[in-house]
Amino acid sequence: MARYTGPKSKIARKFGEPIYGEDKVLQRRNFPPGQHGANKRRKTSEYGTQLREKQKAKYTYGVLERQFRNLFEKASRLGGVTGEILLQLLESRLDNVVYRLGIAPTRPAARQLVLHRHITVNGEVVNIASYQVKPGDVVAVREKSKALEVIADALSGFNHSKYPWIEWDEAGKCGKFLHVPAREDIPETIKEQLIVELYSK
């Protein structure tokens, strides 16, 4: 499946946030990229603000336009607060759950672990990053992959208690997806209502 493979620091500087995790370039140059990035720019239009928020969400969760649109349409059909449900669907993706469990240091790294068949769901290997994890599902590191250095390094010192919707079992190197997270528990600074307004035009 296609994914963004361009310069990550450029995206982080565009939004002024470490979209892909800690970014040394962003720390040194916390202004938009380009020739006039450090200069004052004209006011962004309402459409531009909404589009920017959608792009921020897409880059944060590593989802391209068609898949993001499909998730939005699914969220709008489910009933309830569409923007909140959209974020909950994004949080329920297998690659994101692997990242939240601390098995991988970043979402792209989590996606790679999933694609390379290092992750199981309820004891079965799942190599689809967009797989929707359901409440009660157990996400684990495959037995023969538990010794991988990248996984051990990511888990070392990771605080599993900061996400109340997941429960980690250190002995089994697995985590249980207890329930979909409430909006106030999702730490991403995404203004989902702007995305809803954009797609509602």
Kindly report the name of the CATH homologous superfamily of the largest domain: Ribosomal protein S4/S9, N-terminal domain
CATH architecture of the largest domain: Orthogonal Bundle
Overall average residue pLDDT = 87
Helix content: 40-55%
Give the topology string: H per helix, E per strand. Answer: HHHHHHHEEEHEEH
The helix/strand class is alpha+beta
Q: How many strand units?
A: 5
The profile of the biggest β sheet is: 5 strands, antiparallel
How many helices does DSSP assign? 9
Q: Give the overall silhouette.
A: globular
Can you describe what's shown?
It is a single chain. The chain has 201 residues and is of the alpha+beta class. The chain folds into two domains: 94 residues, Ribosomal Protein S4 Delta 41, Chain A, domain 1 (Orthogonal Bundle), CATH 1.10.1050; 87 residues, Structural Genomics Hypothetical 15.5 Kd Protein In mrcA-pckA Intergenic Region, Chain A, CATH 3.10.290. Helix content is 42%, strand content 8%. A hairpin with a 4-residue loop joins β4 and β5. The protein starts with 7 loop residues before the first helix and ends with a helix. The model has no long low-confidence stretch (mean pLDDT 87).
Task: Record keyword descriptors for this entry.
8% strand; 5 strands; Structural Genomics Hypothetical 15.5 Kd Protein In mrcA-pckA Intergenic Region, Chain A; 201 residues; alpha+beta; five-stranded antiparallel sheet; Ribosomal Protein S4 Delta 41, Chain A, domain 1; 9 helices
